[in-house]
Structures are given as structure tokens and as C-alpha cells.
Design goal:
ATP-NAD_kinase_N, 14-stranded mixed beta sheet
């Protein structure tokens, strides 16, 4: 194993320092051309060491041995959040002038765009070389989580439409067997995040993917029985491609000609069994999740209590370097939203989830976020 790069005295500026280019695996898979462009520009403009990690452990090892090299991340918003959280946990965030080359779709790099980073690969790479490191405030919680842009607490715990339109839920539902929302990629009641990108469901008869998982709902159970015993109770009459021997003795890959028609008929019967919204006696689905009963305190001052439900809550850094968080509470009752600024905000109440930039976390019963003034620096283009 090579020795760590020597760490000379920190220069007055981040420009001119050698670079550690960390290329997120997802960026390599989704847009290899942008990754190649960024690598060519950076290698031509500075001494660059390239890291191609396969997981968070390799990223942590590379950052621990970076020496005087300035970290440059090539990836999307989730990769940025992971790196900032890692550097914060290592207590090295304040010393690292972080650079970013956003790679991904517009929705996956929205946070980078809101922070002022160019989303074009060439412009972002040139910003890494010639930009200015600007300090930014950071929202941190007691569990070590970070928020770079905005924190949002939406209404209710109801799943957002994954099972809508199917009786007893449907395949690919956001709710797990314990009734908790699984849209955040968690599969445990302690709210810990999964990093494998799955939704916590085991493989189902529909195939792979979020809507190909057996979530235990009625349609999935029906298909599971079909795959195991056949529609009419005989082995081998499963859906196409189930790999079981058919009634005519055909083996793997046998596709009975009547399976698509039977599946279509079953889908039609399922749709006909749905409750009609708006008719007398029919079940009604709420148009929006119910409001939440939360106790919210800002710097120890009570803003709202459990007896006053809220529609949503947002918390963000008011201004770069300001050291205060902008808190907006939208009450369920009539009246406008409540605005205030504080250095710390505490939210407590029944189990709730929250959106920390691009990540959905929880459920938790209490969480406190504190503003760390100028806790990290990001390379941004020169101001005109």
C-alpha cells in the first residue's frame, strides 16, 4: 500500500493544488461521455489522481489518503450528499474546498444547480480549475446527517400513490408489511437507509425492478399462486416464462398461448372491482395525505404544538455564511405560513419522515437540526 501524499502547508487559495478526482459509479454508468470530457479537461489543467470507487468504503479510503489533493466529485446530488456527510463525519469538511462536476439527468442534479454549480461538464470542469471557493452554511442533525439545500417535512405518512388504483395496494407499493412507507429505500423500522437502491421487497413473479417485486399485496399473492400452482390449481400453468413444466410436457420457457389473454382478463376484473370515487357507498381516497401533528421549536421558542396540525414544514439556510436557518411552517388551519429564523430547530411528534435534499429519511419521533456557519466550501464560477 502506498504512503499517503505529503500534506504541505495549506495555500491561500484552492486553485493550483493537485486534484483527487472521485468518479461515482452511477456517473460512469449513466453518462460516460460527460465523465470522459471532465477527465480530459481536469487532467489537462492540473495534476490529477483518478479514483474509480466501487462503494463508499473505497471513497473513504481515497479521501483519507488524499494528502494535499483537493477532492473533486464527478456524480449526482446523492453522491455529493454522501461525500459531504463523509467529510463531516471525519471532521475534514472545513479543510476541503470541494468541487463538483454534475453528471446525471436534470432531476438528479437539481441540488447542484441550485447551489450555483454549472451542470455542463465542460463549464463545471473549468470551474474546478478556475473557480472560487465560497463558504456555505450546513444543516446537521444529531445523527450525523447533513442538509445542503432544503429540508422538507411533508404531510402525513401516507404512501405517495404507489398502490393507488389497485385493491389492497398494488405491486411496487411504497408501504411495507409493517405499514411504513418504503419510498426512502429503508427496510427496517429504525429508519436506516438502504444503499442498494432496492425498495425492500423480495423478487416477485413480475420480474425485477420496483414494480416487479412481491410486496405481499393481493395482486402479488394472486400471481405468486399462479406461478406456483397454475391458475386452475395444476402445476405448470404459470405465467409466461416461469420455468415450470407445462401441461404438454414442455420445459423451461414454455409460453401457453392463453396466458396473455388470461392476464388481460384478470387485469380488467381488477379494474372493475375498484371503488368508484364520488358515488354513494364507494370508498373515497384522500386527495392529499393528512396533516401532521408536530411540535416545532426554534431556538427554544415554541412555534406550533401537537394540537395545531401542520401541512408542511421547510428549513433551509437563509443566506450563505449567515449562520441562520429560514423556517417556514404551513398550518392546516386558516391563515398564512409562519416564518422565522433560528440557529437550531427541533421537530418532534408521532413518527414522521423528512426530505433532506434528495434523500428521504425516517421515520423518527424527534430530530434537531443545527446550523454550522461556513462549515464547508464549494468551488463556484467567478461572479461577474
Amino acid at each position: 500500500m502506498s504512503a499517503p501524499d505529503p500534506r504541505p502547508p495549506a495555500p491561500d487559495t484552492a486553485r493550483g493544488r493537485p486534484l483527487l478526482m472521485v468518479i461515482d459509479p452511477n456517473a460512469r454508468r449513466t453518462d460516460g461521455e460527460s465523465v470522459r470530457i471532465a477527465k480530459d479537461v481536469l487532467c489537462a489543467g492540473a495534476q490529477t489522481k483518478i479514483c474509480l470507487p466501487d462503494g463508499p468504503e473505497e471513497v473513504e479510503r481515497a479521501l483519507a489518503r488524499r494528502g494535499a489533493r483537493r477532492p473533486v466529485l464527478v456524480g449526482d446530488d446523492r453522491a455529493l450528499l454522501r461525500m459531504v456527510e463523509l467529510l463531516h463525519r471525519r471532521r475534514e469538511l472545513a479543510d476541503a474546498a470541494l468541487s463538483l462536476v454534475p453528471v446525471g439527468g436534470s432531476a438528479t442534479v437539481a441540488l447542484a444547480h441550485s447551489l450555483g454549480v454549472p451542470t455542463d461538464a465542460v463549464a463545471a470542469a473549468r470551474t474546478v480549475l478556475d473557480g472560487t471557493a465560497r463558504p456555505r452554511d450546513l444543516l446537521v442533525d444529531e445523527s450525523g446527517g447533513v442538509v445542503l439545500g432544503e429540508l422538507r417535512i411533508p404531510s402525513g405518512l401516507a404512501p405517495y400513490g404507489a398502490h393507488d388504483g389497485m385493491p389492497d395496494g398494488g405491486c411496487g407499493a411504497a408501504a411495507g408489511p409493517d405499514g411504513l412507507d418504503r419510498t426512502d429505500g429503508t427496510d427496517r423500522t429504525d429508519g436506516t437507509d438502504r444503499t442498494d437502491g432496492t425498495d425492500g421487497h423480495g423478487p416477485g413473479p413480475h420480474g425485477d425492478g420496483a414494480r416487479g417485486r412481491d410486496c405481499g399485496c393481493a395482486p402479488c399473492a394472486h400471481d405468486r399462486r399462479w406461478a406456483e400452482n397454475g391458475e386452475d390449481g395444476r402445476d405448470g400453468a404459470g405465467p409466461p416464462g416461469n420455468g415450470r413444466e407445462g401441461p404438454d410436457g414442455e420445459g423451461e420457457g414454455h409460453r401457453p398461448w392463453w396466458s396473455p389473454a388470461a392476464r388481460t382478463a384478470r387485469t380488467a376484473l381488477t379494474l372493475l372491482s375498484l371503488p368508484v370515487i364520488g358515488l354513494a357507498g364507494g370508498a373515497r381516497r384522500p386527495a392529499h395525505p393528512p396533516p401532521q401533528r408536530l411540535r416545532i421549536e426554534a431556538d427554544g421558542v415554541l412555534l406550533t404544538d401537537l394540537d395545531r396540525p401542520v401541512e408542511r414544514v421547510s428549513v433551509s439556510t437563509a443566506a450563505p455564511g449567515g449562520g441562520l436557518a429560514e423556517i417556514v411552517v404551513h398550518p392546516h388551519a386558516a391563515g398564512g405560513p409562519l416564518h422565522t429564523r433560528a440557529r437550531a430547530v427541533t421537530v418532534s411528534g408521532p413518527d414522521f419522515r423528512y426530505h433532506a435534499d434528495e434523500l428521504i429519511r425516517g421515520p423518527v419521533r424527534s430530530r434537531t437540526w443545527t446550523v454550522l456557519a461556513e462549515a464547508w466550501s464549494l468551488m463556484l464560477p467567478h461572479r461577474p
